[in-house]
Request: fold
Amino acid sequence: MKKEIQDFENCVNPGPVLAVSCRGPKGEENALAVGYGCNCSFDPPMVMVGIVPSRYSYDLIKESGVFVANLVSENNREELEFLGDNSGRDVDKFEELNLEVKDGEKVDAPLLLDFPVNIECEIVNSMKTGSHEMFAGKVVNILADKEYVNDEGEVEYSEINYL
Reply:
């Protein structure tokens, strides 16, 4: 027997949860926890992330036209919770977390090296869907911890202990 559900807010879990990092036109850097993220094309490879317009990172991403989707493992639980519970308007998250960060290789946004996979994306389109704006980013580069890369140079996503 089925029971009718009243809360439709997260009726499809889009997972995995991501840490999205970005840099604004004045060099301001931030990262935030994103619950709405997914692959949205395989040719060309694209990733979509949903950002609430009131978030500090929203304008940084909108103005820069790029973002990095950082995959989150169980080892990143505390960092992700901090990224989700704090605003870049109030705190330098990278400094507070003592994150290892380096410039993206193909996009002008920071890579979070403490996270197992960093997916650099250039925004090709966006759509407002209500509470979020969904940014579709063409994947231009992927960096991964060596332990997750097989002999053919492919990421073994199934080996990551996702949060």
Q: What stands out?
A: Helices lie at 56-64, 77-85, 93-97. DSSP finds three helices and nine strands in the chain. The beta strands are 18-23, 29-34, 37-42, 45-51, 66-71, 101-103, 110-112, 117-128, 133-144.
